[in-house]
Amino acid sequence: MSLTPEQKSAVSSWVATGDNLSTIQKKLREEFKVSLTYMDVRFLVDDLNLALKDAAPKVDASDVTKTPAAPARPAAAAGEAAEAAEAIDAELPPEDLADAAAPFPPEGGGAVTVTVDKVTLIPGAVASGEVTFSDGVTGKWVVDQYGRPGFTEVSQPGYRPSPADGQAFMQELSTTLQRRGF
Fold this sequence. Notes:
Structural class: alpha+beta
Number of strands: 4
Helix content: 40-55%
Strand content: 5-15%
Order of helices and strands: HHHHHEEEEH
Largest sheet: 4 strands, antiparallel
Number of helices: 6
Strand order of the largest sheet: 1-2-3-4
Radius of gyration: 26 Å
């Protein structure tokens, strides 16, 4: 099916305004009584040498690993953290660094501590350890061979950490595992 120059111009203007393929398909049907499949609309846009605008990526708000980073700490606190980390690094062998690092409390919450087991005996796990959240609830965590973290035990049934604690746990876990060479 070929379109008139007027219809091609309309499609060009719709693409320029940021419409997606299904919206263009719907407008063609409603305004020009032209019924095209989704793939035909895709080919039409390609034939007209038009570039669709990318929509902003959708973020899953329930996944704490994708939440925005916390605001930066003041320079003095960052300097103190770097000095403390250097002092720990100088005193301990690398395998003990993760267990001795004292995390700084996240904004608006208490400290979340993460330890790594020296030996992981859980089938399918590459690392395991324990976590203590700011409210005192403890749990055992694992990271599987695909890098996905999870919990095997939590001291309080049905417990869900606060978003700040969840983010602090993921950051502390990442830092701890990186120091261990994961």
